[in-house]
Amino acid sequence: MGYPASKGLRADHHGTIKIPSHHTSVRMSVATVCEKILARAAGLGSVMPGDVVEATPDVALSHENTFLIHRAFREMGGSRIVNPSSVVIVLDHRAPANTVNSANTQKAVRSIASDLGITRFFDVGAGICHQLLIEQGIAKAGMLVTGSDSHTTTCGAVGAMGVGLGASDMAAIWAKGSIWLKVPESIKVEISGKTPKGVYSKDISLETVSQLGAMGADYCCIEFHGDYVSGSTVSERMTLCNMSAEAGAKSAVVPQTVLPDPKAHYSRTIQIDSSKIEPLASTPHSVDKVATVRSVEGTKIDQAFIGSCTNGRLDDLALASTLLAGRKVHPGTRLIISPASAEIYAMALDKGIIGTLVSAGAVITSPGCGPCLGAHQGVLADGEVCISSSNRNFRGRMGSREASIYIASPATVAASAIEGKIADPRRYIR
Amino acid sequence: MIRGKVWKFANDIDTDAIIPGRYLDDYSPASLAKHVMEGVDPAFASKVSKGDILVAGRHFGIGSSREQAATALLAAGVEVILAKSFARIFYRNAVNQGMLPLVCPGCSEAFRTGEQITVDVEKGIVQSAGEAGKVIDLERMSPYISKIHASGGLVKLVRSELGRTCGDGKDK
Hints:
The complex is a heterodimer. Chain A is of the alpha/beta class. Helices cover 30% and strands 17% of the residues of chain A. In chain B, a hairpin with a 4-residue loop joins strand 5 and strand 6. The longest helix of chain B has 9 residues.
């Protein structure tokens, strides 16, 4: 399902396009995907980068911070949500609750969801919010998806425009049904070429972040193009769109159904030759400090983590099990695996993937965000080193501020877990 | 005109540095304030005073959407942040909380920790309070951002847009 790209433009019975007087044909023929989605969501024929529009989101996603949203919503004088069917609430960040405070928050959020008539409420164990939006078919091409989480960009994998916001903004959406958004400039990222052995969408994402810089796409929408992208799976596209947040992107989208105009304007175009990429890793303490795995090989690790909205899907778990089959996690190293959803967990069990991982010595956690945000399920000690398939390696992100985090593909994480030090996955892949 | 004492910070101060994720299970502003900037300077919470001004480099607030990053600073007494640039979601959150995140490309080089400065949003300038001469330009806030600020934050703006009356005692 999608939406008409340019509401207000209609062909008459002769097939002639009539352009309303307040539009110019030039403006209409140069729109990017995000410009088209925002124009539709704002009820406008067209928009330009820099315009501030009042847009009506199709989806309003939140997690444990629903507690804060509700508080602001009440302070705004809100009593009923203008568009309750747009609201999706997922308890995923500390799932199940890790402290009494968390438990009280989750208890309050359950009551809020029930009192306000939210039918799309997912309790602890269902999975990560960004995973569920796609898995449950909630996010669709052409939709404007707002979420009170910075990785809301992930739903660009199915052609939706996902925009991360804070709690007060989400409260305004509950209270008014709409929110102000500045129309972003769009950046075109073209990825082409057959990927070599041992190279995955995570490596390509790290190359993209490295080329753009940690804030190289700040306030921008990234549009992914190229034959690598058109041949990629939804899971791979989710990794690309998810990691775009680490380049500061407001949104990231793989065009489908709503397509950019041939003459769409991009503030910047970058080209990535995916046949020339080798396994990569972000090094401490910034995601854009990207190095080849070869150059950091041998760095001793204490913890390896496979999971998160970036790389906790079935293909990621299957890949890890391929490397770990018949092998053991290195003594003194712990491997923690968090399936991104209950559905993924069940499928991985069914396929024998979980059995293989557990036999190798992995710890499987409940589906959810896991240790990615440093709240529970694998907090790092002073001086420890972790290699993670997640998305952020800021100092202190996963626990102690004296710990170090490397970000890499699930294959690199699995290879490193086997050796107890950062390892090149290509040795383990036939 | 706002006057305050400067605390200088570097580039790329992320939200995990402003308020680490492990403290986010407690939503009380006072509790958050106890850990503000702990990821950069564990003693900051005990040193900062009401009305102090943060001066930072590029990308202040990079990372998570957690509005508690803005809440923690505000609860610690910081209402004004001057940075070369802000991360998008942090900027919205700070404006929505009624704070003044101001883009000031020259401030980071011009001022040092402990210095008293004055910020004149109307004139668009920042000055050292003591000596004359050092006048740094601010970038103008966009009209919509100014409107949110003038309303005292997004909660109050939306409440007035919805026609709700103020004075129910819940105003912060």
